Amino acid sequence: MDNLPNIDFERLDLPTQAKLEPVGSLNHPPRILMLYGSLRERSFSRFLTYEAARILEHFGADVKIFDPMALPMVGSVPETHPKVVELRELCLWSEGQVWCSPERHGAVTAVMKNQIDWIPLEQGAVRPSQGRTLAVMQVCGGSQSFNVVNTLRLLGRWMRMFTIPNQSSVPMAYKEFDDAGRMRPSAYYDRLVDVMEELYKFTLLLRGRTDYLTDRYSERSERARKAIDRQIGKL
């Protein structure tokens, strides 16, 4: 132990395969929350989200899609606003999420970012997004781009989520959906199936294990220091 003098070995976990065994009740279908980033009546990000939801439901997921209409801008209303409460409760309920945004000016839309900004990193002693799986998707009006999915990946990491490797980017989305909003057969549709299949697999793989996977040495050490400070404060 002399070669690791900076480590508090009472707080250091030694990972084993046995510790990765799932815990808790896993009899319910995987719970997936889906967010999309447009308020337009003919919204291709909403169409893509609903198409993905149909695939996930076929796999057996319990899917809920949040409607961003009437969600106020962050900071403009109290956190007790009904739409804010609804979004946060859905985030806590979820085991996995799907984020889908159009690309606007080379980035995610304000509608998409506003939803993510309303989800706190911490809510009391709970982190609403930590440990959830995440799939990212985007729709483009022109040629294919990956600006949005790259930004969503960055945001997912910041929210401490497990973002799956695969992703969906649909260029010239107006060509890919029919008048009823259903996605036409194409390589882009096949890729969508790939992404949802991968999300479903990773959600099954990680659930019951996320508490252990997100338990960190630095946070255990900090909690121990705070406990000592509290005891000293009582003297």
Question: Which short descriptors sum up this protein?
Answer:
alpha/beta; 235 residues; 39% helix
Describe this structure in words.
The chain is an alpha/beta fold and 235 residues long. Helix content is 39%, strand content 12%. Strands 1, 2, 3, 4, 5 and 6 form a 6-stranded parallel beta sheet that branches. The radius of gyration is 20 Å and the shape is globular. The mean pLDDT is 94.
Low-confidence stretches: none
Shape verdict: globular
Q: Give a quick account of the main beta sheet: strands, pairing sense, barrel closure.
A: 6 strands, parallel
Roughly how much helix do the residues carry, as a percent range? Answer: 25-40%
Instruction: Output the helix-strand order.
Output: EHEHEHEHEEHHH
- Rounded radius of gyration (Å): 20 Å
| Count of strand segments | 6
Structural class: alpha/beta
- Assembly of the depicted chains: single chain
Q: Helical segment tally?
A: 7
Strand content: 5-15%
Q: What's the overall average pLDDT, rounded?
A: 94
From the N-terminal CA to the C-terminal CA, the straight-line distance is 33 Å
Provide a brief overview of the structure.
This protein is an alpha/beta fold and 235 residues long.
Write the layout of secondary structure elements.
Blueprint: E1 31-36, H1 44-59, E2 62-65, H2 82-93, E3 96-102, H3 110-118, E4 133-139, H4 147-158, E5 162-163, E6 168-170, H5 187-206, H6 210-213, H7 217-234
Helix pairs in contact: 1-5
